[in-house]
Specification:
The complex is a heterodimer of chains A (329) and B (235).
Chain A (H helix, E strand, L loop, with lengths): L9 E3 L1 E13 L3 E3 L5 E4 L1 E3 L5 E5 L1 H19 L5 H4 L20 H7 L1 H6 L1 E3 L16 E3 L3 E3 L2 E18 L7 E19 L6 E2 L4 E2 L4 H20 L6 H4 L2 E12 L15 H6 L6 E6 L2 H14 E3 L3 H10 L9
Parallel strand pairs in A: 1-16, 4-11
Antiparallel strand pairs in A: 2-11, 2-14, 3-4, 5-6, 6-10, 7-8, 9-11, 10-11, 12-13, 14-15
Helix pairs in contact in A: 1-5, 5-8
Chain B lengths: L2 E9 L6 E2 L7 E2 L1 E2 L4 H16 L1 H14 L1 E5 L3 E15 L8 E15 L2 E8 L3 H10 L11 E6 L10 E2 L12 E9 L6 H4 L11 E16 L2 E6 L4
Parallel strand pairs in B: 3-7
Antiparallel strand pairs in B: 1-8, 1-9, 2-4, 5-8, 6-7, 6-13, 10-12, 11-12, 12-13
Helix pairs in contact in B: 1-2, 1-3
The chains are: A alpha+beta (329), B alpha+beta (235).
Chain lengths: 329, 235
């Protein structure tokens, strides 16, 4: 496994990105107004008792899904009717449609690249006593890309209170005053991408999407979306408070065989040293210090690597002598 | 069958959230570390990834159900409630469709300092398998609750350092400063695969029992709904 390899594509089983990002004058993640005229920022206590600024992983994940859907559509990957409309319920939004009643997991995973990557949950339902509604089985897949909360590095974040006006809900109310915080700081963030799980029913650990080209498209779309979400930040209130991006540094950790790519928080000053100390045959570390370094690594990774196959599927293919061309382009 | 203790040290590189069972989905409170049933389910899920469903169901499952699981929490844990936007299912009832409503929910999120240790008393002949599983577990509870196994040793658990069911708590010291919550555990060591295997059967709940657990942690500070927990020995 080597990112500098020119020709051969190398497999990636698991991947993590541990980074520090500098956002100035932003309001990317908030907790609402609490009934007051102040929009409250998100806060998180750290174990040492320090209170720090935070951006929820939910908003990052939502942004990633939106970006990835665009790449998937551009590449001709299938999306389900819900994901085509960017409905965040994904396959669950289809559960009442007659043609999607009690469908198999393999069909969902084959027909929607976004449900496969970001996960979905169709809850179980009992049949009505009068027979008006049928029973429904639970159907789900966990997300295969996870985002931690972005946490402000203690001592490296500040908050300014801005007075804004906004229109009231009716003409009589006129203008209302709102206090909105703009925050600036350096944030630690971790992302993990279980790329081996692309097209896999993770409950039974069976490969449902057997087309390697389709798995590769999904892998590339996910990596490009991760790249874009940091180089072009998105979140709450970006219409008028688009963050000034001033720093992007960290490390991409790749694991080529069964196992986990280590994740280590950039809250710790020595996080790069600790990660680099784990470099070896099972784990490759690529550190970057600038936005262009991050951009180049992820662009190259999306071209030069491919998602590994689950161990069972790999074993079966080796035994039956199947080749990589299976599924076709 | 001879058994040996394995102690797996986990680092929490980011915030995490292991929900207390029975707490409301719209106001989810959390434990400082996962409970014993969460550990067993994580062992099953990860073992399926590594060794395949058949091997886990036929060979490994009985020992996962019967081994002793003890959990030593991290040294310090900060728990903060977060308001989040979420989708809520509303059952449609007779001849009506289900509805999905957007709502504000509260979910507590934890941040830890120091490692959590999971102790397993495993059959000696299966030690290598369990080492591989423990090394591969990458989260506890929610998938975004990242965890990273940093070391596995043969260290046996020291009394007073791990969470205990209230029924096993023999001390006469007052319980009040200690962190206490409900946790789930497998109902009995001899459960069948059909009773436990998640996603295959709807009656999974019957496989678990709820117990009140005492954690070797005290609440050092409470502020604006947040709390800081600090580890100490149970006398």
């Amino acid at each position: 496994m080597n990112m500098s390899a020119e020709n051969d594509s190398f497999p990636v089983y698991d991947l993590s990105i541990n980074l520090r990002v500098g956002w100035q004058a932003h309001s990317l993640s908030n907790v609402g107004d609490d009934g007051s005229i102040r929009l409250l920022p998100r806060r998180q206590y750290l174990a040492d008792g320090t209170e720090t600024d935070a951006c929820s992983g939910n908003i990052l994940k939502h942004h990633h899904a939106m970006l990835m859907a665009e790449y998937l559509e551009a590449e001709g990957s299938l999306l389900c009717p819900a994901c085509r409309k960017r409905d965040s319920r994904r396959a669950a939004a289809l559960s009442e449609r007659p043609e999607y009643q009690n469908i198999a997991i393999a069909r969902v995973l084959n027909e929607c690249a976004l449900c496969d990557t970001h996960g979905f949950l169709v809850t179980a339902k009992k049949a009505a006593d009068d027979g008006s509604t049928e029973a429904r089985q639970r159907l789900s897949k966990h997300t295969i890309i996870d985002f931690a909360y972005a946490l402000g590095i203690p001592g490296q974040h500040r908050e300014s209170l801005q007075l804004h006006t906004r229109s009231g809900s009716s003409k009589e109310e006129g203008q209302m005053l709102m206090r909105v915080t703009s925050r600036s700081g350096t944030y630690a963030l971790c992302i993990r991408y279980h790329c081996v799980r692309i097209g896999v029913d993770t409950d039974q650990w069976q490969l449902a999407v057997d087309n390697e080209q389709e798995r590769l498209k999904r892998y590339r779309a996910a990596l490009r979306a991760v790249r874009d979400m940091f180089t072009s930040p998105e979140g709450a209130r970006t219409a008028t408070m688009l963050p000034h991006l001033t720093e992007l540094s960290g490390a991409i950790v790749l694991c080529g065989k069964a196992g986990r790519a280590p994740v280590y928080s950039a809250l710790a000053d020595d996080y790069l040293t600790r990660l680099q100390a784990m470099q070896g045959e099972e784990c490759q570390i690529y550190s970057f210090e600038t936005i262009d370094g991050f951009y180049r690594y992820l662009t190259h990774l999306s071209v030069a690597s491919e998602p590994a196959l689950p161990s069972g599927a790999q074993h079966r293919r080796t035994q039956t002598g199947e080749t990589k061309e299976r599924g076709g382009a | 069958m001879t058994r040996t203790w394995l102690a797996a040290d986990y680092h929490f590189p980011a915030t995490y959230s292991c929900r207390i069972p029975m707490s409301s989905a719209s106001h989810a409170t959390v434990t400082p570390a996962p409970g014993p049933a969460t550990v067993r389910l994580a062992l099953i899920r990860t073992a399926i990834e590594l060794f395949g469903l058949g091997f886990v169901r036929d060979k490994l499952f009985p020992s996962i159900c019967s081994l002793r699981v003890l959990i030593k929490p991290p040294e310090r844990v900060a728990i903060t409630p977060h308001r989040l936007r979420a989708l809520k299912w509303e059952s449609g009832g007779k001849a009506k469709q289900d509805r999905v409503l957007e709502s504000v929910v509260v979910r507590e999120i934890a941040h830890a300092q120091g490692h959590m240790i999971v102790y397993l008393e495993v059959p000696t002949q299966e030690e290598l398998l369990y080492r591989q599983i423990l090394q591969t577990i990458g989260y506890w509870g929610q998938t975004s609750s990242f965890a990273c196994c940093v070391e596995i040793t043969h260290e046996p658990p020291q009394p007073g350092t791990y969470a205990l069911p209230l029924s096993d708590f023999r001390s006469t010291e007052p319980l009040q400063p200690l962190f206490i919550c409900l946790l789930t555990e497998f109902r009995k060591p001899g459960l069948t695969w059909q009773e436990v295997a998640p996603a295959f059967h709807l009656n999974q709940r019957k496989a678990f029992r709820l117990d009140i657990y005492v954690w070797p942690m005290t609440v050092e500070r409470k502020q604006n709904g947040s709390q800081i927990l600090v580890r100490r020995l149970l006398e």
